[in-house]
Specification:
homodimer; 266 residues; alpha/beta; TIM Barrel; eight-stranded parallel sheet; two-stranded antiparallel sheet; 12 helices
């Protein structure tokens, strides 16, 4: 099944455009084994999300066993919920092929995030997995995003050039874009340029992005395809023994808020 | 010891600005265990190089045991030869911190490559490891590099904006740049903008870069600090049982050619 169909199916089934970022941070987590933590979060949220998004950095920071935990986490996620590997990889063709293999064939992600700085041949090995989703970083959610992404290149900011190219490269219909919730105007602009693409929207909660504008500017004409990612606000809703219940409560609240804003946006 | 001193020491000791890229590719390798392959290559080249550069993609593509092989490979490299982790990571601050920890504290690299697309706060956690080297992608060696890196932003190509920012951010003197040998004019330009920085120069051999211009445009005023990376041309000099001897012969030849060009450049 194509990534976009799996995503739409999960979204319909769970009435949700919430994506939970599975980013276990030992400094913020309750005192529990990382795999057990992930499993508990998945157990209480899998009927509330359209996707999960583990960021590989948090697993690599755990040492060699980190990747084993990531593999087990991905396997634990119900098969009908797509998993986006947030890896932000980007390398020359020959090497990008190895990264694509690692993310799609070895780790089994349904989609991955990639960095556009190296241009088309660095993304092509990912795009060639036609059933997988490829989310290209466009306008990221962090403060430093402005350093290069806002530089005016040929009359428009660089991130718009990325969105334009992404559209041009989208021959298999499996490309999406990453646009931070912390920059609503830029999000609005990207959605207007790419009315059909799924947008992965991080930056809600800990990073300060506003949910109402993220949803209303991020959705397509049907009120869909805005994947709102929340990590810390849900994972660390409580640092105590009730962390899983607190995570569910928070996830449910945000899922419902997203739906309210979707209806208002239409 | 600071990365740059370790690099200069190794370079002086081995009279070399050759860096061997440890990128084990099962499709190109002789039939031998990956760790044994790396060990054999290190054994026959460690007196001929200024650094080693494993690219993480090739280890991630081997599955979970890949990272264990990478860890063992890094430990097998003599302590006085710096190891550059070619990871090209780039993520928001909180996540970049986890990547920096993974590369510098867990895997023990002396330096790492990073992607500038997300701006300063995505690089800061790396730069804050003051004894480690941070090589920022500037003008990469692949064909697609032109897609964004050559876009004119404020009157100059984007890669020049990256070089300018890298200079500004270099308060600890631990930043270097990645510039492909396949674009000699761009390399010349970057060297003129950053006369003191170490430049990591891939693209020789399999990618078609010209060694003479890479060296003459890449070195600083002393004829130093141009780290010429070669991977496939050395690793796969032979696919037979004599692969290690063939790798040594090729490495020695390239090391000496680099030195010839260095003398001509001065």
């Amino acid at each position: 099944m194509k990534f976009i169909d799996k995503l739409l199916n999960a979204s319909r089934k769970n009435k949700s455009w919430l994506c939970v970022g599975l980013d276990p941070d030992p400094e913020l987590m309750p005192e529990v084994d990382v795999l057990q933590f992930n499993k508990a979060i998945i157990e209480v949220t899998h009927d509330l999300v359209c996707a999960y998004k583990p960021n590989l950095a948090f697993y690599e920071a755990l040492g060699t066993e980190g990747l084993a935990i990531l593999e087990k986490t991905v396997k634990y996620i119900p098969g009908d919920i797509p998993v986006i590997g947030d890896a932000k990889r980007g390398d020359i063709g020959n090497t990008a092929k190895a990264y694509a293999r690692a993310l799609f064939s070895i780790l089994g992600f349904d989609a991955a995030t990639v960095n556009p700085y190296l241009g088309f041949d660095s993304l092509e090995p990912f795009i060639n997995y036609q059933d997988k989703g490829v989310f290209i970083l466009c306008r990221t959610s962090n403060k430093g995003a402005a350093d290069f992404q806002d530089l005016r290149a040929a009359g428009a900011p660089l991130y718009e050039a990325v969105a334009r190219k992404a559209k041009e490269w989208n021959i298999y219909g499996n490309i999406g874009l990453v646009v931070g919730a912390t920059y609503p105007e830029e999000l609005k602009k990207v959605r207007s340029m790419c009315p059909e693409m799924p947008l992965l929207i991080p930056g809600i909660g800990a990073q300060g992005g506003d949910l109402a504008s993220a949803v209303s500017y991020g959705v397509d004409a049907r009120g869909d395809k805005a994947i709102i990612n929340v990590s810390r606000q849900i994972l660390y809703a409580s640092k105590e023994k009730d962390f899983a219940q607190a995570a569910r409560t928070m996830a449910e609240k945000i899922r419902n808020q997203i739906n309210d804003y979707r209806h208002k946006a239409r």
